[in-house]
Write a structure and sequence with these properties.
The complex is a heterodimer.
Chain A: H1 9-15, E1 21-24, E2 27-30, H2 37-46, E3 49-52, E4 57-62, H3 66-73, E5 85-92, E6 98-108, E7 111-116, H4 121-126, E8 135-138, E9 143-149, H5 153-158, E10 172-177, E11 180-185, E12 194-200, H6 204-214, E13 221-222, H7 225-234, H8 281-290, E14 296-302, H9 304-313, E15 329-332, E16 338-348, E17 353-360, E18 370-377, E19 380-389
Parallel strand pairs in A: 3-13
Antiparallel strand pairs in A: 1-2, 3-9, 4-7, 4-8, 5-6, 6-7, 9-12, 10-11, 11-12, 14-17, 14-19, 15-16, 15-18, 16-17, 18-19
Helix pairs in contact in A: 2-7
Chain B: E1 36-39, H1 43-54, E2 59-62, E3 75-78, E4 81-83, H2 95-100, E5 110-112, E6 116-119, E7 125-128, H3 132-142, H4 144-168, H5 180-194, H6 198-209, H7 212-217, H8 223-231, H9 246-253, E8 257-258, E9 261-262, E10 266-268, H10 271-285, E11 289-291, E12 296-302, E13 305-311, E14 316-318, E15 321-324, H11 328-334, H12 343-351, E16 358-365, E17 384-387, H13 391-402, E18 411-415, H14 417-420, E19 430-437, H15 448-466, H16 470-473, E20 474-480, H17 482-489, E21 525-527, H18 541-555
Parallel strand pairs in B: 1-2, 1-15, 2-11, 6-17, 15-21
Antiparallel strand pairs in B: 3-4, 5-10, 6-7, 8-9, 12-13, 13-14, 16-19, 16-20, 17-18, 18-19
Helix pairs in contact in B: 1-10, 1-18, 3-4, 4-6, 6-9, 8-13
The chains are: A alpha+beta, B alpha/beta.
Chain lengths: ~400, ~550
């Protein structure tokens, strides 16, 4: 059976100048629409661009006990969430290892929507108590979702949905576009100003056509997976099966990452004091108390002068390739003892540096700590100075601006 | 369509710079005393001032105009349309300038121009992009042979570029000096070239001394491919592709890079004016003071040493280091008394060729031009549009320029910049920057004030012949003649490189034998403009290298 097509596919196919598609959770997704994925990336950072994120798994938790349920399942306390707000979330196993991450949206007092990279329906349903007045459904195919990201996204979207003018970072609102009821959240996976628009699948093309025509003349283009990943690495946003693995399916602890190790301590500030019981709490509490994290996910910025010098000495032109590398590269100290490893890296055109997301031991987590990144030059390993930086590496004020 | 984007927030680019206001008339001598004064707030003056301030020098940058940037400015010359009046693209900017001056922090944002569009006189075109295989396919449409040759050319030239690139970032050794340090530098340079593969060295010499046409003919048969590549061999220079010396101009123009891709050009956010605003923010962040509307009349000397500058209005500023970012003629013959200089030097500067030969015509357009063979497509405007369909076209354009007139069918390097930076024109509208050649500064039987609109009409007529209906799109036209470049920017004879790219005016001869190391015969008086090595284009190289020499001298 061929791969599924998203509700927007018909329009996107016509816009895909390359004919390149890849596989995302059973659906076709564009690698890039133009021959130059960098041009799409520039549109995200300089104008605005549209990404079809419909294949993302979606769940709806509804009922009087939905909040109580999520409070026990999610690692971050969802109770402060008001209807009309979203939060970045993760869920852990009972050893505090991350299962997955996603965005939790509170649609109403007793209704939540949650996104996830992988199927979780069975997992979520098993965690519902016998007496819970709660329904958990998968809604993946019910919605088409467009991520509209970039500095111009607010002004352009406000022309269609005036509520955008005042929608705060991680706010969400039910509104209409072309008379189609949509839910728009100020969220995204690019680390820029941006929105995600949830559209009923059967009305997807109507909304697409309206958004598309409203953005002509403003250099808005669709973008594919490559440009998305460029943006997300700069934004310090982790990717499942690249920067961490699902603890439910990892074979060894080395393939599991605790929420704190993954850099999500900020979500768990209440963990030491809270009476909220959630999956993984005790383990995370112990990890904080005993400072027993094995590593910390941080950003790395490669020393540009050393980088150029080493490649030039090898008779090569120093490559500055923006193509995201989703693979492990090892990190060492000056005596070439392994310290950790990088999980994603790229040359960032915005930052004009080679950057990476990497796991470093706690004694190197302070910004400015120096490590050595191992890269092959002329088929031999060379060791490049790199400096620890707190992610996000690219963080424009417009992202969170009121 | 109801969406209406707000005007972009950074529209101040090019409007009055954010420079600190000049001091009031009550200022005392003490607060008009600095460690270093830089004359000219063009990109090299700003770069130089930023490096000096970064090293802790109390630095003053004086700019004659009410905005910084020199030839690298962006102005709203027509409501809602932002023009890169003069300089319009980036490639040769030295990467260490970006890093050393922390330009990213201040908004440095080069934008990829992913295509090159070359219309042809028969209505066909060559459209190159970022994908090698697609490019080979497109070149193969014109010549199967040239598709293969393209890779060979790219590789051979790449090797030469790799060999030459380090020269861009070094102070030229003084070949006339017996100083052991200079001899060591010269020997290192010699041994660097001795180590090159013979073919690479030979190719380098062929490019440095020969014509672009000879070099390109070795690889290609297709006129459009050769016309496109040869265009870089004439830009800003009074040479045609068949002239010896055009190889050097070609080599220079591809010595740059964009994100590690050699020879690639990009466009800075809001144009090169956006870039110089970034530089000026960086300079000020390091502590440099920028004073606008401050035309320097002369450098004040005392006992053979520079001690300050006097403005046209008589105000004086004092510093033991004075750096001229102006061109060699102004630096040596106007800011100081030439009689205080060695005669040889004065002669050399008098002989230094400017003879500007380029112009700009900038358009505000009601929409994107249509190219008949591409129907309603407009994506070809993501990069440069090169009107130079064959070497013969370029050479014939040169013929007229050679004899003191502007080309009746000029070479045009066009960029519809609003296509890559939507903030530069209202939605659906466009700004188009057209670099024009040949337009010699010295006209045979007329003057540029008379011929300004004639040049504009010629350019528009040429565009109309490739893009039928072009004229109907024109909302506004801004013609910039070589005389305008001289008057507005201050570049002598309107030479965009502050002096021709001729072999005897490069490297250790730029701007004059014995004076290529940014110093002058006057102690404390330095030069940092594009008339010094490595030369013109927005490189920042002269500003950076001059600062390194100044700081070294101070440490002595």
């Amino acid at each position: 059976m061929p791969l599924l097509k998203t509700p927007f596919h018909e329009r996107l196919e016509a816009l895909n100048e390359t004919g390149l598609w890849e596989h995302w959770s059973g659906y076709l997704t564009a690698t890039k629409y133009q021959m130059s994925e960098k041009f799409e990336y520039v549109a995200i950072r300089d104008a605005a661009a549209i990404f079809d994120s419909s294949p993302l798994y979606k769940y709806r938790m509804a009922g009087p006990d939905a909040e109580r349920y999520l409070t026990g399942v999610m690692a971050r306390d969802p109770r402060p969430l008001q209807p009309g707000q979203a939060q970045y979330q993760l869920w852990c196993d009972d050893r505090g290892f991350v299962v997955e991450d996603g965005v939790l949206m509170r649609i109403a007092e007793d209704e939540f929507w949650l996104t996830a990279a992988e199927p979780n329906l069975d997992y979520f349903r098993r965690l519902a108590g016998r007496g819970d007045d709660l329904s958990i459904e998968e809604t993946t195919a019910d919605w088409g979702v467009l991520a509209f990201q970039g500095p111009r996204s607010r002004a352009l979207l406000a022309g269609l949905a005036p509520a955008m003018e005042r929608l705060p970072y991680f706010g969400l609102v039910a509104t209409t576009i072309a008379k189609v009821p949509v839910t728009i959240s100020r969220t995204g996976y690019t680390g820029d100003l941006g929105y995600e628009i949830w559209v009923p699948a059967d009305a997807a093309l109507r909304v697409w056509d309206t958004l598309w025509s409203a953005t002509r003349g403003y250099n808005v283009i669709p973008f594919g997976q490559t440009a998305l990943s460029m943006a997300r690495i700069e934004a310090g946003l982790v990717l499942l099966d690249v920067d961490f693995h699902n603890a439910r399916f990892a074979w060894t602890d080395a393939d599991k990452t605790s929420a704190i190790e993954l850099g999500f301590g900020w979500m768990l500030r209440d963990v030491e004091t809270t009476d909220r019981s959630f999956i993984g709490r005790d383990a995370l509490r112990r990890e904080i108390r005993e400072k027993s994290s094995r590593w910390k996910l941080t950003g790395l910025v490669v020393d540009w002068r050393e980088y150029d010098r080493i490649f030039l000495a090898g008779g090569l032109v120093p490559p500055k390739d923006h193509t995201p590398i989703h693979d492990e590269y090892y990190i060492y100290d000056d005596d070439l003892r392994q310290l950790g490893y990088a999980t994603s890296q790229m040359y960032s055109p915005m930052l004009q540096r080679h950057i990476a997301l990497a796991r470093v031991p706690l004694d190197r987590q302070a910004p400015g700590s120096r490590v050595k990144l191992e890269l092959a030059v002329n088929h031999r390993y060379e060791y490049f100075d790199a400096y620890v930086t707190r992610p996000p590496l690219f963080n424009p004020p417009r992202k969170t601006a009121p | 369509m109801s969406a209406k984007a707000k005007p972009a927030p950074h529209k101040s680019a090019g409007r009055g710079a954010s420079a600190r206001a000049g001091r009031s008339g009550r200022s005392t001598k003490a607060d008009r005393t600095y460690d270093a004064i830089v004359i000219g707030g063009g990109h090299n003056g700003l770069t130089n001032g930023a490096y000096l301030a970064r090293a802790g020098l109390r630095t003053l940058i004086l700019e004659r105009r009410s905005l910084v940037g020199g030839a690298a400015i962006t102005e709203e010359l027509y409501p809602g349309f932002w023009f890169t009046t003069f300089s319009y693209a980036l490639s040769l900017l030295r990467p260490d300038v970006v890093q050393d001056l922390e330009l990213v922090k201040h908004g440095f944002q080069p934008i990829l121009m992913p295509t090159t569009f070359c219309p042809m006189e028969d209505g066909d075109y060559l459209l190159l992009g970022q994908d090698r295989n697609e490019n080979l396919k497109e070149i193969g449409r014109h010549s199967r042979r040239d598709a293969d040759a393209y890779d060979a050319f790219d590789h051979d030239v790449g090797k030469v570029l790799q060999a030459m690139k380090p020269l861009m970032d070094m102070v030229p050794p003084d070949i006339f000096s017996d100083d052991p340090e200079e001899l060591v530098a010269l020997a290192a340079l010699g041994s660097r070239f001795r180590r090159l593969e013979p073919k690479v060295l030979h190719d380098a010499v062929r490019l440095l001394t020969g014509s672009a046409a000879d070099f390109l003919d070795d690889y290609f048969e297709s006129d459009i491919v050769k016309g496109y590549l040869a265009s870089a061999s004439i830009i800003g220079s009074k040479v045609g592709p068949y002239s010896h010396g055009s190889g050097l101009v070609l080599l220079y123009h591809i010595l740059g890079e964009h994100d590690g891709v050699m020879g690639a050009w990009s466009f800075h956010k809001t144009g090169n004016g956006g870039f110089t605003q970034v530089l000026s923010r960086a300079a000020q962040a390091f502590g440099a003071e920028i004073r606008l509307d401050s035309a320097v009349d002369s450098v004040i000397t005392k006992g053979g040493a520079a001690v300050g500058v006097a403005l046209a209005d008589g105000t004086e500023f004092h510093a033991p280091v004075v750096v001229s970012a102006l061109d060699p003629r102004r630096t040596f013959l106007e800011l100081i008394d030439p009689r205080s200089l060695p005669t040889d030097l004065v002669d050399a500067i008098n002989r230094f060729r400017f003879q500007g030969t380029s112009a700009k015509v900038n358009f505000a357009l009601d929409g994107y031009p249509r190219y008949p063979a591409l129907g309603d497509r407009t994506d070809q405007y993501r990069g440069f549009t090169n009107i130079g369909p064959s070497m013969e076209y370029l050479e014939r354009a040169f013929d007229e320029g050679k004899y003191g007139w502007y080309s009746s069918r000029p070479y045009l390097d066009c960029a519809v910049q609003s296509f890559v930076d939507p903030d530069m024109a209202p939605p659906g509208k466009a700004v188009m920057s057209c670099f024009v050649q040949y337009a010699p500064y010295h006209l045979r039987s007329s003057d540029w004030d008379t011929e300004r609109q004639g040049l504009g009409d010629t350019v528009q007529r040429t565009l109309e012949s490739f893009f039928p209906g072009f004229g109907d799109l024109v909302l506004h036209r801004e013609v910039v003649t070589p005389l305008d470049i001289e008057r507005v920017v201050g570049l002598s004879e309107g030479n965009i490189f502050a002096g021709e790219f001729l072999a005897p005016q490069m490297f250790f001869f730029r701007p004059a034998p014995g004076w290529s190391q940014y110093r002058t015969p006057i102690v404390g008086y330095y030069q940092c403009g594009s008339g010094t090595h490595p030369g013109g284009c927005v490189t920042g190289g002269p500003g950076k290298l001059a600062a390194s020499v100044i700081l070294k001298d101070r440490a002595r």
